[in-house]
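User: What would this chain look like folded?
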Amino acid sequence: MDFITSVPTVFDQTVPLDGKVGEYVALARRKDDTWYVGAMTNWDPRELTIDFSFLPDGEYRVVIFKDGINANRDATDYVREIRTVTNADRLNIELSTGGGWAARLERVE
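Assistant: Here's the prediction, encoded as structure tokens.
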């Protein structure tokens, strides 16, 4: 719940990353210096690549929430992970049936 309550309702910038109407979407949104990236799919599981080239230069701490191994049967099954990325990185993600992926990126000072 901490992640969801931290997501703003108004953003300064939106960057479409990937998508196909009725099938899946991936986008990045910025509020001040914090980026929020999300992806979701229809009932087809799929793999996507998140390209972080939209980020300004620097390192970013990423808090990720992704589908867990049983997410296709239990919507509360998720995995939280933390990593560091730059605008040169790409991350392959897997979306379960009806699944999603979300991340908050904050610049490392």
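The chain has one domain: 2-107. If you want, I can go into more detail on any region.
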